[in-house]
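Suppose you are handed only these lines of text.
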Amino acid sequence: MQYVSTRAAASAAASSSQQFSDILLGGLATDGGLFLPTEYPQVSGAELDAWRQLSYADLAFEILKKFATDIPEADLRALTAKTYTKEVYKNARQGEKASQITPLRVLEEENGTKLVLQALSNGPTLAFKDMAMQLLGNLFEYALAKQNAELNIFGATSGDTGSAAEYAMRGKQGIRVFMLSPHKKMSAFQTAQMFSLQDPNIYNIAIEGVFDDAQDMVKAVSNDLEFKAKYKIGTVNSINWARVVAQVVYYFRGYLAATTSNDQKVSFTVPSGNFGNICAGHIARMMGLPIDKLVAATNENDVLDEFFRTGVYRVRKSAETYHTSSPSMDISKASNFERFVYELVGRDGDRTRALFQKVETRGGFDLSGKPGSDGDEFKLVAKYGFKSGKSTHDDRVNTIRDVADDYGIVIDTHTADGIKVAKENLEPGVTMIVLETALAAKFNETILEALGEDAERPKGFENIEDLPQKFVVMKPDVAAMKAYIAANTGL
Ligand SMILES: *Cc1c(COP(=O)(O)O)cnc(C)c1O
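From them, the structure of the protein bound to pyridoxal-5'-phosphate can be written out as follows.
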């Protein structure tokens, strides 16, 4: 399986292609594009039937081996077996089996239409990012050991990504994590989750400023190519291909667990921000999984909803980005969206490059086909089965309340955005699976507002705020940051 950049010129595409292990530890392609396989591996109906019996770990192996063809199968099987265990996904709630890793819960069934929740947040940090990040931790450790190499992961977080990365990389050989976060801006729970880690390879750095200050520091350090090479700096952001591919697995799992034959129709609603999660659903569909609709649910930051309604992709300025009660979806642009646009324009790298240069220079592009637009490919979106919707704070609060009343479970704010939009997109005879992207305990403030009581905390998280914390506070000073990394890597 070869990989190519979404911005590769047609003439260069074949010669510049790479293997899975080549792109595993990297981020963007050198031309600024994102990696995709040169073609999607196909899954037959017979294969799908055989996969119905598999454990999650075995299913993950079957899917990953189609993409990671340069990793020996026995090694890959060991990696997936170690990643997807009931001990790692132990935060399953009452009525869920931890051994199923992503258990389904039927919320409603009427006239052949089902509304189902797929729990993706039973891992160590109570958010779906663990599903991919835990595998990434094991893949990184494996790949680094083979090359006798080291990696220093450097990133900025406002919550979910940073904690998922730290829990995936803690204690791993050859890996250190330097994670910046805005000082005193994360919730007490999120802060405690990250800062209570005492592992010597985890460095929590609280930056005096807001998230953008932390993000700017990461960009400044990463733009210093000499420093980056010398100190072996890498990232684990949502454009990482291995993260996307690990997420493909739970779409297969959800479909197979919700059906008894491959003729049955299933749609997915996905609480979306950077388009990483739903992009994995699109890839599952391209591989032949019979997904009916993929519904992108956004919050007030409705960049994606706007595109799927109008064909106009218009990124927002920081000042136009709302801070909402589903903060992990507060995005100004959707960093994985280029992977879908590449497909939409017929895998034309020159065209994709031109469109995303327009994002830089003009703040977006328009594929509506209207006079003066940049193209008419929006008309093809329906063929890919995409739909969308948006949700506001009031919707979230009402949905959390309704779901508690009607189905007796407490959902988090991001999942509430998903349920709200899913209900607007139910179709007769089609099962709708909503991906549960976090557990309520992580976003307790809004739960308290909606229900008048605290969200239940999984075992082991009861007194997390009281644990000793390990972190340093720094000013947003790039030189000081570089000195800190240099001193702690010993390179
Ligand atoms: C990251 C995140 C999302 C958004 O996922 P994308 O892959 O960026 O679209 C949604 N919900 C939660 C809880 C998250 O942590």
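What can we learn from it? The first strand starts at residue 3 and ends at 5. The chain has a mean pLDDT of 94.
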